Here is the input.
Amino acid sequence: MISKLINDYGFIRVACSSPELKVSDVWFNLSKIKDNIVSLCNEKAQVILFPELSITGHSCGDLFYQRLLIEETEKAILDLLNFSKSFQSIIIVGAPIEFQNRLFNCALVLANGKLLGIVPKTYLCNSGVYYERRWFTPALIQNNQMKYANQEVIFGSKILFNISNFKTTFGIEICEDLWAVNPPSSNLALAGAEIIFNLSGSAEYLGHSQYRKELVKTQSARLISAYLYASSGANESTTDFVYSGHCLIAENGKILKESERLLLDDITLISDIDVDLIKNQRLKNSTFGNIYNEGLHNYVISSTSLLESDAIDLKRKINKNAFVSSSKVQLDEDCSEVFTLQTLGLAKRLKHTNCEKVVLGVSGGLDSTLALLVAINTFEILSLDITNIFAVNMPGFGSTGRTKSNALNLSEILGVTTKEISINQAVLQHFEDIDHNPEDYSIVYENSQARERTQILMDIANQVGGIVIGTGDLSELALGWCTFNADQVSMYNLNSGVPKTLIKPLLDWYSESTDDLEIRSILKDVCNTPISPELLPLDNGQNLQITEEKIGPYILHDFFLYYILRHSFTPKKVFYLSVITFKGVYSELEILKWLKVFIIRFFNNQFKRNLMPDGVKIGSVALSPRGDWRMPSDASKDLWLKEVEDISIY
Here is the structure.
């Protein structure tokens, strides 16, 4: 039976909070922090981050010197420690701490009544409106033990906090630390921290929030980590400037959640961090492997454990179209770049071979239509005659009038050289030669047509002195949905890096860029045509061979492909994510069925990928044996298949 609890799949629920406060009113601030803890724990938050100096307020100025403020802060922390015993969450707050007759700007990490560590700020901002060195001392070079709030606790900037039962490690830095040339978070990540928590007191001014956001986003990408940022809110002193309460949660270069800013009320933010994703990406990154031991040097690990959350639904958005942006603006940019990458790939190949002619089969389907458009764009960039693009339509036993007319009409409108060659007689002759009954619609019936088409394309290429452009896409390669020594081969495959679910958006994008209404109409119809190899005979002119009914929906297979290859997730985790993402679209039984199909087909067809032709990488997943994916053709699928078969539906 498969669990639905988020912690069972490598997620941990984290939160940022910028509560309402009163400057220097420790007990009011503590009450607001408690309120936020209760609220966020009700939402199953397991680690809660508060801003820099959140116990006192960031803008106390010379009040930080006051003995009363320092002593009341310690009493407030003692109170918070007792309060934390009622919750199964880690709490990170900011406070001024006196140690060895010096004052430090610190983060305190506590859980279940225990202080896990105190981390002083490394880089004190002392320029512009900031005068931190007036009150505080930079972090000491070495870790020390100290007594605080009646507990012996480790004090220093080289502390890693480990949640042992979740196999998750995090680190702390404070505000200006992130802006430094060498942020502490860099070494924390190298030492093993998958999540960085930043307590901040950053003031607001025009344009600063966007810069802050980009910095958090970039640092999370550079560290291959999650990065949480909680900033002091608008109730700080406005004597000289305003604080905004800006809270951010980033993961691997993506902003998962961002709060509103400039509110006088409490600001909270909550999301689920995918620690598995971070760990798996780091395994593939040689930077971490090469200097891991060096990065770990002199770090102390403070460990605790948490009860598993009973949270079920994820607090993060997962796109059904794993390879397609949900933002129209971003999608248009992506399509433009994909089209350019494909164009440059073909352009280089033509220049290198001194070839000015290409041959490709056009069926009226998605893949060949995209390849034709890219070929035309390439010829225009190279100032080549587009009549030297030979678009060959090869109708067979299952070809429909719809796809045939779309292929031929589009080719003619675009001005390429168009050929129509029926394969029926050649294939029937072949059946006779090998003694195959033409009424036997087995795999021989289908593959013979695919191989005849490839033979025609190759021989025409020899005739005209050109190269054959392959049109099969990334999703088909993953599933092995191609005929070996037929559409599996070409002199150059334009679409080998493009997943099926991205091809319709690419054609839509191209359609929007052209003023030719006839081209638009054809491209729209191509996109609306059911995906089919069109190899079996028609029934009263109707095509009954629908690819997705045979092998499953491409939107699911591309989802599986992305998370199994890009992030190395287990089948159980992929199933869990799929169930959440496609709730109301596909049942759990359907998802399980097609996940099993994906794994079987992926493993069984590696031999086709190991002999695939050249073609450029387009996105974060590629299957070329010379590039991202090196796998033996005879690797066993048993471990993956067993995990799928062990999944029971509630």
Q: What stands out?
A: Residues 328-353 form the longest helix (26 residues). The chain is about 40% helix and 20% strand. The CA atoms of residues 286 and 537 lie 52 Å apart.
